[in-house]
């Protein structure tokens, strides 16, 4: 194994200028968060205003010359805060798509534009989280190779996310208000979702593996949920293409007043128009019928609406203001998953009962969960890094008492291969914004 561990040392190598939009850094800001490009014209203006010859000599108070600073660039691995790269909170927009049919009027409608404007903090936080997501996954796509351990992959991604959204006024007292939105999913082959390594996991990524990388980033509780699939053997290309096309079809179909069941039908139609040949055997690509997309609420990864990925008569409509994770899964197996294997993912239930806990380890663990995650999903590694140990009895007790929900790995039949692509979309009053869209997917 030519395992190349991710390094914590900041390489001198600079990557793409993050100040993507020309003019973004020229806007005047009031928050003191400007990129201080020194302004030499100030001195020239002083010269021009100098008293004419013969007048009493006035001692010039020259400001010391400031060095011209280049706009800050991202490092490799990414460790420069997104807030520093985009002064005045000018984070890049996602893909903005105009509504169609009866909702065409929304883009220019005065009232809808007003509603959009009063929601600007929501949008700023979402765009901030989405840019961190794009930069962390760019690192992942470039660096993850067969031979890496899943633990090194998870740490590489999570160290990036935390550095990108961390610090700089984003902490209120003790509460961290930006960071991982949920544990990084690293689900391989027949495992479709909710796998991340627990402590001591020595699993190594293999050349013929198909790995779903599902990353959650939140800023002030606005969670971007977006995933892609990595494979190194080109034989999986049609599988990955099927799922990418199916997700894009779902993203395209989504909109205000659209019925979620109709989206499922379109996703399935696109997904199941593909087949994939593996070792001389041809497999139809199936939509995994018991997995679906979902709404996202503030500090809560799953809201009350689902988006099926097979034909369904679910008449639930998408509405203005909804945030959806549009995710589709394709499989060479049964197209049906079940829970199996050691649990890594957990989350406190938002409707958690106020039980009087008998077990002191459960009581103290609940305090740790409340303080560090609230209702955001977490994994055992996140407890380990907080210095917690011997917490399993307490954790299982919280699950038994219905306070914490466990999310076991979701797997199709052994020997099968599954793929996933996922985007978070905002149904803004004026436009649909595919907030997690990048050049990659
Ligand atoms: C649960 C726990 C997590 C939400 C979907 C998902 C990853 O399968 C309604 C529909 C993170 C996310 C979730 F730690 N799940 N998206 N990305 N997993 S889900 C779900 O439980 S609830 C689908
Ligand atoms: Mn996800
Ligand atoms: Mn999701």
Automatic annotation (TrEMBL):
Specify where the region named Disordered lies, as residue ranges: 1-87
Catalytic activity of the protein = Release of N-terminal amino acids, preferentially methionine, from peptides and arylamides
Alphabetically ordered keywords of this record = Aminopeptidase, Cytoplasm, Hydrolase, Metal-binding, Protease
According to its record, what are the GO cellular component terms?
Answer: cytoplasm
The residues the record assigns to binding a divalent metal cation 2 are 225, 294, 327, 422
| Residues that hold substrate according to the record | 194, 302
**Assigned protein family:** Belongs to the peptidase M24A family. Methionine aminopeptidase eukaryotic type 2 subfamily.
Q: What is this protein called?
A: Methionine aminopeptidase 2
Organism this protein belongs to: Diplogelasinospora grovesii
